[in-house]
Structures are given as C-alpha cells and as structure tokens.
Amino acid sequence: MSIDWAALGQVFGVTLAVTVGIVGLFTVGIVGTSRRPQPEGAAAAVAAPGAGARTGAVAAFALCAAAVAYGIYLIVAA
Q1: Residue 34 is inside which H or E element, if any?
Q2: What's the CA gap between 39 and 51, in Å, rounded?
Q3: pLDDT, tens digit, for every residue of 31-73?
Q4: 51-73: buried (b, 16+ CB within 10 Å) or exposed (e) per residue?
C-alpha cells in the first residue's frame, strides 16, 4: 500500500480553505443581521441593520447554503 502524500496534502489544503471560507461567510451573515446599539445620547433601544447589510447577509447565507448543497450533491452523486 502506498500513500500519495501530495494528493493528501492537496485534499487537506482545499478542505481547510473551503471550511474557513464557509465559516467566514456565515460570520458575515451573522454580523449583517445583528442589531447594533444606537449612538451615545440616543434612546436605549437598538437599531435594526440597514438594507445593505441585510442584503449582504442574505447573500452570504445563500452562498453558504449553495456550498453545502454542492457538497451534498458531490457525496450523493458519487
């Protein structure tokens, strides 16, 4: 039995990069939908995120879902 270390290293590298990328995208989505405090001197309420932030968050979540769906497709289609 022979182990192809170069191929194993490539799989490890791609897996690490994709995992960090998906977690980063999900984090962007969470930050985009989170509420932020009002400036000092304003009421104690919190402000909802702007339309641009919410659109970016939805796009980030959609990309995460697409990556997960593609991974499931790769597993099932094989």
Answers
A1: none
A2: 19
A3: 988 876 666 666 656 667 788 888 999 999 999 999 999 999 9
A4: eebeebbeebbebbeeeeeeeee
